[in-house]
Amino acid sequence: MHRRIPVHGYGLTQNLMYPNPADPAPSAPADYQVGNAATGTCWCDAQAGAIPDNAVLAGQDGDDALYVGRAEHEGALIPGKVVPGHGVCYVAWGGEEHAKTEYQVLCNCSGIWVPASADNIPPNAVPCGHTEEGEPLFSGRVNHEGTLTPGKVQPSHGVLYIPFGGQEVPFQEFEILTS
């Protein structure tokens, strides 16, 4: 069964797929990496704008839907925004926006976006990556210049960084993805 639901307060919608409990459990394709076997949350390897049906919708930029993604950069695994029409996942690092053609997309996550700030990271925030030193990174989003844009929350810096307009743009108040 498919159902359309609103994404927290922004009028966006996404398709959620609810499996029939009577159906046998499918085996995951080799390109799926399970993030949480109990909930089915996983990261799906993707490239060139590919988005799985069960991807987590995180925002909007004009006519482009933005999804929770992550990509490797300089030894880090960085949460960012997948823009299917651009064929990339953008990540923020070192003051700049970096386009990655190979990335992972968060799937099957029934998390909730909740308000957060530099000094208020919820304990149930969903880890979505790590710095090159191993610090956990989380997915956050913010309204910026008419868009709802996801990026990385880096607790040691006390901010959400979004990849936007070629730059890494920081925000102290944002929404964060929680379980």
Structure overview:
The chain is an all-beta fold and 179 residues long. Helix content is 0%, strand content 60%. The protein is built from no helices and 17 strands. Strands 3, 4, 5, 6, 7, 8, 9 and 10 form an eight-stranded antiparallel beta sheet that branches. Strands 11, 12, 13, 14, 15, 16 and 17 form a seven-stranded antiparallel beta sheet that branches. A hairpin with a 4-residue loop joins β14 (147-154) and β15 (159-164). The chain is globular, with a radius of gyration of 15 Å.
Largest beta sheet, briefly? 8 strands, antiparallel
Uncertain segments of ≥5 residues (pLDDT<50)?
1-34
Mean pLDDT: 83
Radius of gyration: 15 Å
Globally, the shape reads globular
SSE succession: EEEEEEEEEEEEEEEEE
Q: Give the distance, in angstroms, between the N- and C-terminal Cα atoms.
A: 23 Å
- Please indicate the percent range of residues in DSSP E strands (runs of 2 or more): over 45%
Number of helices: 0
- Structural category is mainly beta
Can you give the helix content as a percent range? under 10%
How many strand elements? 17
Keywords:
DM9_repeat; mainly beta; 8-stranded antiparallel β-sheet; 179 residues; disordered N terminus; single chain; 17 strands
Question: Could you outline the blueprint of secondary structure elements for this entry?
Answer:
Layout (H helix, E strand, L loop, with lengths): L1 E6 L4 E6 L14 E5 L4 E7 L9 E5 L2 E10 L2 E8 L4 E6 L2 E5 L1 E6 L4 E6 L9 E4 L5 E9 L2 E8 L4 E6 L2 E5 L1 E6 L1
Antiparallel strand pairs: 1-2, 3-4, 4-10, 5-6, 6-7, 6-10, 7-8, 8-9, 11-17, 12-13, 13-14, 13-17, 14-15, 15-16
